[in-house]
Amino acid sequence: VAGEWSPPSAAVTTAIIPPGPPRPPEAGQWNGATEVSFSHPELLRGGSMGAYAIDLYAQPPGGDIAFVAVLSADAEAANGGRQPDRSGRFRFTLAAAPLSGTVFRAMITDPAGRTSPPSDPVIVP
User: Fold this and answer.
1) Which pLDDT belongs to residue 84?
2) Residue 98: phi, psi to the nearest 5?
3) Three-state DSSP class for 24?
4) How far, rounded to the nearest angstrom, does the alpha carbon of residue 99 sit from its chain's CA centroid?
5) Is the dihedral of CA 80, 83, 84, 85 positive or negative?
6) What pLDDT sits at residue 1?
7) Which of 3, 21, 84, 85 falls 20 to 30 Å from 91 in CA-CA distance?
8) Which residues contact 41 (CB under 8 A, 6 or more apart)?
9) What's the pLDDT at 83?
10) In this structure, are residues 40 and 74 in contact, taking their beta carbons and an 8 Å threshold?
């Protein structure tokens, strides 16, 4: 009927999603005390869907691998993140020094929920 309006349509949104999951963290390092760090060549900037996250896992000698901590890729350097220009390393500070032989690995989850392969192992000497 002329002059009648239908209810409004839902809002339109656009999400730009990379073609595959993120690459794994690289160049893992143990600082000899309580810090494990990783680098990543990509900016890992989130968007309207959320932020990238870096998950840290540890496996003590003879034990099972377990989740330790998560860090937002948007975290400030003072909180374990990279510099504002996205240079530097992601740093995880542990509550206590792990046992010798503990293996750490990290994985990145993108805003769409896709997870990278695990990083190469970082082994506490």
Assistant:
1) 93
2) -80, 165
3) coil
4) 24
5) negative
6) 61
7) 21
8) 23, 26
9) 94
10) no
Neighbours of 13 (CB within 10 A): 7
Q: Please say whether the beta carbons of 25 and 116 come within 8 A.
A: yes
pTM of the model: 0.86
User: Which residue shows structure tokens 């970082």?
Assistant: 122
The type of residue at 16 is I
Give tens-digit pLDDT for 86-112. Answer: 999 999 999 999 999 999 999 999 999
Q: Would the pLDDT of 16 be above 80?
A: no
The yes-or-no verdict on residue 13 having pLDDT over 90 is no
Query: What three-state secondary structure class fits 78?
Result: helix
Strands (DSSP E) contained in the chain are 26-30, 35-39, 53-59, 66-72, 90-93, 103-109, 122-123
Alpha carbon distance 87, 20 (integer Å): 23
The Cα 66–Cα 72 span in angstroms is: 19
